[in-house]
Amino acid sequence: MEKKNIDWANLGFAYTKTDYRYVSNFKDGKWDEGGLITDDTVTISECAGVLQYAQTVFEGLKAYTTEDGKIVTFRPDLNGERLENSAKRLEMPVFPKDRFVEAVLETVKANSAYVPPYGSGATLYVRPYMFGSNAVIGVKPADEYQFRVFTTPVGPYFKGGVKPITIRVTDFDRAAPHGTGHIKAGLNYAMSLHAIVDAHNQGYDENMYLDAKTRTKVEETGGANFLFVTKDGKVVTPKSDSILPSITRRSLIYVAKEYLGLEAEEREVYLDELKDMAECGLCGTAAVISPVGKIVDHGKEICLPSGMEEMGPITKKLYDTLTGIQMGRIEAPKGWIYEIG
Ligand code: PLP
Ligand code: COI
Predict the structure, then answer these.
(1) How far apart, in whole angstroms, are the C-alpha atoms of residue 9 and residue 164?
(2) pLDDT confidence bin for 123, thresholds 50/70/90
(3) Which atom, in ligand 2's list, is nearest to the CA of 127?
(4) Which site in 89, 143, 160, 184 is 20 to 30 Å from 283, CA atoms measured?
(5) Which Gene3D superfamilies has this protein been placed in (predicted)?
């Protein structure tokens, strides 16, 4: 199959339309058979549940070209499982995870000309999502839904690729205790938009959100979980009921323990402890691991010893091992890699 003529190495994290997308509709209590279409537009009621009350949930994963030229995706079953949980929390019907995985593989296969070549630094981002599509004017769940999957080739989430970024501790909250921070709902991102625009205006790359109740514990950023390395080489990730259970973070904890022989733990991380950390990174599908060089807490600078030039040494080992597994250079744990047939 011939690849599209795209300048893969210079792609940013932006939308490029590809040829096919998957669509399935939920009506009269059931999902239809679904299938691929070429129309990239959506026509719905002006009063659709998604437009009025933000009833929408989504996922994000990537397809990679491996060293030996295969196209693969990374743990799509976990994205399917998470979408099921997100849908339940917003009173939406579940799109079964087995069908989710099939839809993802089918959409990637149909767009294989857009999967960036091995070594290009780019990947194919896959965006499954679903939304309430029929008219809803009282505050209640929709009766009809659409599930879609589109793909877009992307480069690094942060300009500069793996160069360390500077983040600030924000006074805005992203998620309430017992709220929706643990699911991937569009509403969580809508409420982070003002905070991110403000952070950018002040010269920061991202926001560090704290727990809304006590404002003493580290939660996550608008689009990634945190990963820290202590001065004695232990990998630590924040534990909270109001952060998204990142598949990248869960995979990295496994990689740290099982591939690198490191100690790794998920526990509450206090803002006060950050000055004692050796390394910090943001982990997620889009972010992969983006190193953090500096955290600014209301004018007080916390400079990570790993500096502003490159990733810390343990973050680098984690990054190389994870991307090695995703690109087929390192043997993956059983069940992590799904080949596109
Ligand atoms: N946290 C938030 C708020 C996110 O949007 C994402 C991205 O999906 C993540 C964390 C990372 O999750 P994952 O590693 O599953 O992509
Ligand atoms: C992802 O990493 O897949 C996300 O959805 C995060 C978003 C900031 C692009």
Answers:
(1) 19
(2) very high
(3) 3
(4) 89
(5) 3.30.470.10, D-amino Acid Aminotransferase, subunit A, domain 2 (3.20.10.10)
